[in-house]
C-alpha cells in the first residue's frame, strides 16, 4: 500500500489540500499523512535530523488535524495517518475529541501516530516539559485508550486528571484505532514493542544499503521488547516514511519503495516536501509512482 504526505509545509501549505487528496486517491493513493511542526526557532538549540538548523519549509505549517479533516471529507477509502503528532504538546481529552471526530467523519479510517518530539523551543512555546516527554506520551496513550474503550471515563495521573465522566463519542473502529509510534532510540523502540500496534520508521532517498540495515536493527529491538512483554512481534505493523531529499528523482523513490516491499515492508508513504513544489508537480509524482 503506497500513500503520500499531504501538502502541509512551506510553499505546499498554500496549495489546495482538498484537490490534492481527492485527485491522489483517484490515482490510487491508499493513505495520506500529516506531520507536526509548531514553529521554527531562529536560533535552535537542536536542529533538524542531526543538523544545526531548521528547514525553511517548517516556517509555514498547516495544522495537522485540520489538514486530516479536509482530507477526510473529500476521500472515501484512503487511510488517514499522523507521522507524528508530538504527544506532550496536547491536552489528551481535547486531542481525543478531535481524533475521534476525524475517525467518525472518515468512517473509521484514522491511523493515529505519536512521538515525543525533539525541539526545546517548540516545547517551551507549547508549555510542555521536554524532560517529561516520554512519561507524558505514556500517560496520553493511557488516557486515549480509556477514552476510546470505556464509559464512563476516569483518570488520575502525574500530569492530567479526568473526573468520572460520560464520553459517548467513540471511534468507528473497535475497540479503538490502531496506535502507531515513531521511534529511533532504544527506549522509544522498546515502547513500540511493549505497547504500540504499529511502528513508523523512516528512510531517506537517495539512499544506500544502510537504510535497510538500520530498519533491521531497530526492528530487532521492537521484536525483543514485544516478546518480553508477552506480545506477538508479528502483530506490530510498520508504515515506512520515505523522505525524498531535494534533487531526488522519481525513479529513485520508486526503487526505494520496491526494495522496501521486497524486504518485508509493503506499506509505505512518500513525503515530497523537499523534492518538489506546487500541487501539479506533486500530483505528477504521485501518478508516476503509483503507475510504477
Automatic annotation (TrEMBL):
All copies of domain Luciferase-like, residue ranges: 13-259
EC number: 1.-.-.-
Key words, A-Z: Flavoprotein, FMN, Monooxygenase, Oxidoreductase
Key word Oxidoreductase present: yes
This protein's record includes keyword Flavoprotein: yes
Matches recorded under Pfam families: Bac_luciferase (PF00296)
Molecular function via GO: oxidoreductase activity
Enzyme category, top tier: oxidoreductase
Family annotation (Gene3D superfamilies): Luciferase-like domain (3.20.20.30)
Source superkingdom: Bacteria
NCBIfam families: F420_Rv2161c (TIGR03619)
Record protein name field: TIGR03619 family F420-dependent LLM class oxidoreductase
Organism of provenance: Nocardia xishanensis
Lineage, highest ranks first: Bacteria, Bacillati, Actinomycetota, Actinomycetes, Mycobacteriales
Amino acid at each position: 500500500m503506497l500513500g503520500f504526505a499531504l501538502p502541509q509545509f512551506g510553499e505546499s501549505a498554500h496549495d489546495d489540500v482538498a484537490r490534492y487528496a481527492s485527485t491522489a486517491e483517484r490515482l490510487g493513493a491508499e493513505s495520506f499523512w500529516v506531520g507536526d511542526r509548531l514553529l521554527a526557532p531562529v536560533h535552535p538549540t537542536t536542529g533538524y535530523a542531526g543538523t544545526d538548523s531548521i528547514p525553511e519549509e517548517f516556517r509555514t505549517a498547516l495544522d495537522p488535524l485540520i489538514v486530516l479533516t479536509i482530507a477526510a471529507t473529500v476521500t472515501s477509502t484512503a487511510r488517514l495517518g499522523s507521522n507524528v503528532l508530538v504527544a506532550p504538546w496536547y491536552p489528551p481529552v481535547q486531542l481525543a475529541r478531535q481524533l475521534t471526530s476525524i475517525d467518525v467523519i472518515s468512517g473509521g479510517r484514522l491511523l493515529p501516530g505519536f512521538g515525543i518530539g525533539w525541539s526545546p523551543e517548540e516545547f517551551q512555546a507549547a508549555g510542555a516539559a521536554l524532560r517529561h516527554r516520554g512519561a507524558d506520551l505514556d500517560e496520553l496513550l493511557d488516557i486515549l485508550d480509556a477514552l476510546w474503550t470505556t464509559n464512563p471515563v476516569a483518570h488520575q495521573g502525574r500530569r492530567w486528571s479526568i473526573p468520572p465522566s460520560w464520553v459517548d463519542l467513540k471511534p468507528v473502529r473497535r475497540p479503538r484505532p490502531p496506535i502507531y509510534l515513531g521511534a529511533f532510540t532504544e527506549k522509544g523502540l522498546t515502547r513500540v514493542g511493549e505497547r504500540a500496534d504499529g511502528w513508523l520508521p523512516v528512510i531517506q532517498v537517495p539512499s544506500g544499503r544502510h537504510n535497510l540495515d538500520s530498519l533491521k536493527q531497530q526492528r530487532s529491538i521492537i521484536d525483543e521488547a514485544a516478546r518480553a512483554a508477552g506480545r506477538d512481534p508479528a502483530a506490530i505493523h510498520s508504515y515506512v516514511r520515505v523522505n525524498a531529499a531535494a534533487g531526488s528523482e522519481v525513479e529513485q523513490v520508486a526503487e526505494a519503495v520496491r526494495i522496501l516491499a521486497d524486504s518485508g515492508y509493503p506499506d509505505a508513504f512518500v513525503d515530497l516536501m523537499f523534492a518538489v513544489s506546487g500541487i501539479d508537480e506533486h500530483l505528477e509524482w504521485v501518478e508516476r509512482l503509483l503507475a510504477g
